[in-house]
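Example record for the data management plan.
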Amino acid sequence: MEAKEALKGGDNALAIRRAQETVELSLRAALGFMALEHPREHDLSGILQEVAILRRLPGWFEAEIPFMASVSRDLARKGGLAFYGDERL
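Corresponding structural encoding:
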């Protein structure tokens, strides 16, 4: 909700940060539910892809892994830029 409000208000950096936090925490919860240790980094795409190979997962979840990994990777990259900025700009 906060991401949506930030986007409506034109605060794109805050919207990206909140979206990234939501995705990261959701994926960490899913990994925790599977009793998996997760890396201490924002981009969880690598562990998601490993889990898809090493674990038997519900079909609906496995089907979404490429999308979830892509979103995690993209938002982790954009979240860093939104939080710290880019001195090249």
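Summary line stored alongside the record: The chain is about 75% helix and 0% strand.
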